[in-house]
Structure prediction request, 283 residues.
Amino acid sequence: MTFKDLLKERLLHDLGFEFYVKAGAPKKTFQIISKDSGIVCGTIFIATIVKLVDEQFFLEEAIPSLPVAIKIHKSDGDVLKPKDIIATLFGNAEVILKAERTILNIISQLSGIATYTQKQIKKLSSLPVVLIDTRKGDPLFRPEYKYAVSVGGGRNHRSGFFDGIIIKDNDIAAYGGIKKAIDKYAKTVKSLTKIEIEVQTLSQLNEVLKDGRVDVILLDNMPPHMLKKAVSQIRASKKPYLIEASGIAEYGLAEIAKTGVDLISTSSLFRRAQPLDISLQAV
Prediction:
């Protein structure tokens, strides 16, 4: 499913599956305005949303409207402050008003995620660690949310079950232990695809290091003092593993980063971000 398909689904659920735009609406100018400070994200979807309303929801017998003119004043990644004009739209008022809520919801949500992500990254600016998201959350919105994380300066973890291998605790339990779980995935791994495994104890870590077949080690729900021990053991091995820390909600990001891990993954980039206040106003 493409971004365009997802945007159309949002419009269908907002406008109704039998909704149609009527011809003959007046032409009007509207501005999308920020009421908050932050990082803007989602402006790349404005034109597609407007076009979908214009093309998909006009009555077949109606005369198609002229395309709505759109001028973007603040591109994704730009800094926002209150009263900043994000975009100006001119054209069929009904098309713009029917696209309004979908546009504002997306810009508000994604700008909130981008803003929150950038704030967290600033806390780590002096430390050699990369902040990444997770695949937690509704998969229908995940591509948009991951895009917002990248606009805010973060990195994306795998997008779904299909594009990466992570052997989790339940995999280990289901297949009868660490070695058997690695056996299962190692047989089917595609060329150049890395295998990651989650460990929660130092004894599990020792077993993984003895096996030596994975590429990335995820240290899950370990307190900082245990993380330091785990990182030390991994670095002492002959293989250059990539080390990820997760399940760190109760600790500060900087505290976790100082343990020496390469990556910190957190679902908070989606879950704790507050939407920015964005509005549409007629001029």
